[in-house]
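Example 3.2
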Amino acid sequence: MPAAAAPDTQRPRTGPDRPPAARRRVPWRTALAAAGGLLLLLAFPGWSLPLLAVPATAALAVAVHGQRARGGAWLGLVFGLAFFVPLLSWSGTYVGAVPWLALAVSQALFLALLGAATAATSRLRLWPLWTAALWVADEALRGRLPFGGFPWGRLGFSQTDGPFLSLAAYGGVPLVGFAVALCGALLAAAVLAAVRGPALRPAAAAVAGALAVPLLGGLAWLPLPGSSLTAGGPTVTVAVVQGDVPAAGLEFNARRRAVLDNHVQQTLQLAAAVAAGDRAQPDLVVWPENSSDIDPYTNADAARAISGAADAIGAPILVGAVVDGPGQYLSNTGIVWEPGTGPGDTYVKRHPVPLAEYVPARAFFRFFSDKVDLVRRDFTRGSEVGVLETGGARVGDVICFEVVYDSLVADTVEAGAELLVVQTNNATFGYSDESAQQVAAAQVRAVETGRSVALASTSGISAVIAPDGTLVRQSQLFTSAVFVEEIARRDTTTLAQRLGAGPEWVLAALGAGAVLAVAVRARRGSR
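Structure, written as tokens:
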């Protein structure tokens, strides 16, 4: 007796005879994935609607649900392109579309991997949990590969306000991202349950779970310290100086002396205001990255200008300088410049930006764009944690993009930093959202570490951020600004600091375990 033919429902038909409804399925899912990516974009600075990250992740979860891994990869790629292409548009402001699109596509490929894994695990029980864990695993990979990774645009960095932000104090950026993705996946489960049948119990359970996640985040604020800059320890008075640049663009570097003079003049004006009693006397003055692209160790004129400013204000200045050496390299360095005695402690940036501060495989990348040759000399990589004892405080220094790397911030606080300083230069990104996106990352770091953050930029946005992520002061793009604030020296430790990378590894392992379970099941089925 011949074997019975398998029902059509077991394997979708392809080709011209495929039913019209099935042929419409892929465009519908693709459109939903693209809409999800655009919704996630709206959660970030520029639009600053953080709660839209929830329906954004829900859209991807619905789009890939029940699909094969290959289809999920396509949908994840669409989601990633819709999100990263506009989010990272600042990266092509002055270097053209090729580097910008190459960066955006490289990041979108990680979301293609996420889409494939999410689709593969969407038939498992408790799939919303595995979906959220896979977001953490995917961002962990993206933050490490290649060349040390590029963890910009993580879900957690969109949550500068609202109920999810408090979770940063308990599990860092990974826990915030997990909570957002879990809420989105539960919302997706509710939608799918409501569409598939009249049974309301699964949909109601999913909705209850989706509501419980932000509720838990809201309750998590209760044991956290308040928003005051001055609470939690003895205070120091910190001045943040934004001197501005002569013009936006890559050419700011050709006007190095003008940039240095701008910061000197702003500091001298502050000194005059202090002498007149109009401003408080600072214990420490913070200048941004690239405030002196003239090496003050080898250029006596630059050294005299900085010393004059430090002597006038009567406080050490943390100068962001480009220093020659070691050897053929340059060093992106924070230098504590003391009044009367000159240069003291230093911090050298530990994560120079690939293709911006150094060029790996130069010949290969030159094939795509000759802009790599704008980096004439590679920057070296520092080896010491950036804790500087100055102005009566232990100051944790991170430089520019280092603020988005978990380990570089965590080990600075572990080494004893009582407050955090971010020195940055945003002039090369013009009037884009890059600076606001960086400030958002610093806001999440403040909650994660329980430390106030003073962010100094050459051209904006400079900011002073309280330990609950509140923006106490902020400047505008391409203007001069000086902030003087009392900031508490805090030595408390958040749970996130005590756990370190543990939450990320545990959640990533959950996601990887779900993928492994699917792979084992498929292998057994093939046998």
